[in-house]
Amino acid sequence: MTTPNPLTRGLRPTHPGELLREDVLPALGRPKAEIARLLRISRQTLYDILEERQPVTPGMALRLGKLCGNGPDLWLAMQRAYDLRLAAEALAEEVERIPTLTATEA
């Protein structure tokens, strides 16, 4: 079990596409078609990430990290947090019914 971060408690994790759409691309000031070309992906793939219809995969994180100069870790961590939150919400009742086992002393 992880300890909640008091700085982010209650905040919904951001899909990396939102960061890309709202902050990164405007700061770069380049057309989306050029960004897609530089990333060596289709425009549709870029649009799907920007609209949060597609996750940032490890390969895409490498591409974004290189393009932005910040490495892949941020992009993967954001996607992981986003995916985990969605799974926790979707499976909350089911997971709640699973017992927590402890090791017995020998």
Automatic annotation (TrEMBL):
UniProt signal peptide: none
UniProt superkingdom: Bacteria
Which InterPro entries does this UniProt record tie to the protein? Lambda_DNA-bd_dom_sf, Toxin_antidote_HigA
SUPFAM superfamilies documented for this protein: lambda repressor-like DNA-binding domains
> What does the UniProt keyword field contain?
DNA-binding
Task: Indicate what this protein is called per its UniProt record.
Answer: HigA family addiction module antitoxin
